[in-house]
Amino acid sequence: MRFTALTTVLMASASLLVACESTSESQANERTEVYTPAPTRTPTTTTRPPATPEPQATPTPTSSSLSQIIGPFRSSGHAALDAWRDDFAQRAYGQGFHVTTIRSVLSGIEPMSIFLESRADIVHQSEFSKPIWEYLDSAVSSSRISNGREKLATDASLFADLERTYGVPGEYLTAIWGMETSYGQVKGDFDAPSALSSMATEGRRRAFAEGELLALMRILDRGDAKREWLQAGWAGAMGHTQFMPSTYYAYAVDWTGDGTIDVWNARADALASAANYLSKSGWRAGEPAVREVTLPPAFDYSLADGEERTIPIWGTLGLEPVGYTELAPGTVNKAELWLPAGKDGPAFLLFTNFRMIKTYNRADSYALAVSLLAENIAGRASPSAAWPRDIDRLSIEEVKVLQNQLNQLGYNAGVVDGIAGRGTRKALQNFQADRRMMADGYPTQRALNAVLNGR
Ligand SMILES: [Ca+2]
Q1: Is the dihedral angle over the CA atoms 225, 230, 236, 240 positive or is it negative?
Q2: pLDDT confidence bin for 121, thresholds 50/70/90
Q3: CB neighbours of 55 closer than 8 A, spacing ≥ 6?
Q4: DSSP β-bridge partners for residue 321
Q5: Distance from Cα 271 to the centre of ligand 1, integer Å
Q6: Where is this region: Disordered (predicted)?
Q7: Would the N or C end of the chain have less CB density within 10 A of its end CB?
Q8: What is the pLDDT of residue 65?
């Protein structure tokens, strides 16, 4: 989701979501609400001025008098969390937040073991060891597609209004909703202040977590939400479309017009907020995110190199659209060719809107899942080409060997982490191209052998 630091959390958040989804059906607790169409309404919060904390009337108090003003807090039972809270509360006060706001956010926090007994790395690694087709099998499952079609039909007038206002089609909003929370079934029932406070106490992402806690204070000061609503996934992402507090503060809107932005229970508020966020990030109305293509025989796979080229160039190179009459709508200028599973799998042109989805979560696999889910929800079966499920993939340890060897040979595969991301694939492609090999950059046993023999 969105910008820099947040994306990392959401990558982790999405991976946990995927990892947990099969066991989380019992969390289903979606409230039903009636959506009343309001075609001419502008969301009310877009015009509301940002709440700036009012300066405190008193001169800067000393540290001991500060703790008298703010505290004391009742112990959370975790000494490090308590110590961090005392310090952070004083700093929040120094930034001008009211004591009542600070106490509202921080009083009832509880330690969360996922941060304070560090288990997050295990979750992180399991996603990246999965081939993309296994990730897509669960992310774009047939049940998620059929549920998405149902949601799109049920709220047809809402989605039409949102597309008119923000330019984002209903199938994409539905797909993000499905990816983030399985259409509101798995929103997370952690207390957001507890999650972010535990993250801050753990320390590695303290500045980020504290920034998100300050955003929660601003949200309460502005009157958008109530303290007891602030439930989140384990990493602090909130509601139907899993907004981090700072994203909520900057982009969430009150579509229902009741004066609150209830992304937890009012799906119309949450979906409008996601649409507003994508729109403000630069979503291009009338354009897709991806389009599947076929490549001609003897294609130069080194052209799938992350570089954008114009649509006419791709046409000249022999790319053909799959399921459409043209490679891209006329308004599209440039696209990147991506072969997620190398030459033997589906090929896609990626457009600007693919990058917009990556503001939600910067993983290419996530953006592809949203795009394919959207296509399928809209009734267009995609992809049409099969994934190379029997290909001789590399284990995490073998990818490390590949990365290390590429680095030694002078191809910059980056950090040796066992994750074959864009950097590793580009390095492998350059190695292959220099030796006039088929240069798709997909890390197979054959590719590893070539690199090991290529010194
Ligand atoms: Ca509302």
Answers
A1: negative
A2: low
A3: 96
A4: 293
A5: 11
A6: 26-66
A7: C
A8: 67
When pLDDT is averaged across residues 10-20 and rounded to a whole number, the result is 37
The helices-and-strands tally (H runs, E runs) of the chain is: 20, 7
Q: Which two tokens stand for residue 348?
A: 């896609």
Higher pLDDT, 324 or 7: 324
- Identify the CA nearest to 212 among candidates 87, 358, 88, 98: 88
pLDDT digits (tens, 9 = 90+) for 366-405: 999 999 999 999 999 999 999 999 999 999 999 999 999 9
Digit-coded pLDDT (tens) for 300-321: 999 999 999 999 999 999 999 9
> For residue 281, how far is its CA from the centre of ligand 1 (angstroms)?
22
Q: Domains plus CATH for the chain? A: 1-126+180-284 (1.10.8.350), 396-452 (no CATH)
Could you give the count of Cα atoms lying within 13 Å of 408 in the half-sphere of its Cβ?
11
Q: What is the DSSP string of 274-324?
A: HHHHHHHHT--TT--SEEEEE--TT--GGG-SS-EEEHHHHHHTT-EESSS
pLDDT of 13 above 90: no
CA of 385 to the centre of ligand 1 (A): 42
* Mean pLDDT, range 359-369, rounded to an integer: 94
- In the reported structure, the alpha carbon of residue 342 is separated from the centroid of ligand 1 by a whole-number distance in angstroms of 45
Distance 13 CA to ligand 1 centre (A): 25
pLDDT above 70 as % of the chain:
82
Enclosing H/E stretch for 349: strand 347-350
Q: How confident is the model at residue 338 (pLDDT cuts 50, 70, 90)?
A: very high
Write out the two tokens for 92. 């929040």
- Residue 43 CA to ligand 1 center (angstroms) comes to 9
Please tell me the distance between residue 150's alpha carbon and the centre of ligand 1 in angstroms. 23
Count of other CB atoms within 10 angstroms of residue 400? 17
| Distance from residue 185's CA to the centre of ligand 1 (Å) | 19
How far is ligand 1, taken at its centre, from the CA of residue 263, in Å? 8
Tell me the CA–centroid distance for residue 261 and ligand 1, in Å. Answer: 4
pLDDT digits (tens, 9 = 90+) for 146-204: 999 999 999 999 999 999 999 999 999 999 999 999 999 999 999 999 999 999 999 99
> What's the confidence (pLDDT) of residue 64?
63
CA of 101 from ligand 1 middle (Å) equals: 21
Burial of 80 by CB count in 10 Å (0-12 exposed, 13-18 middle, 19+ buried)?
Answer: middle
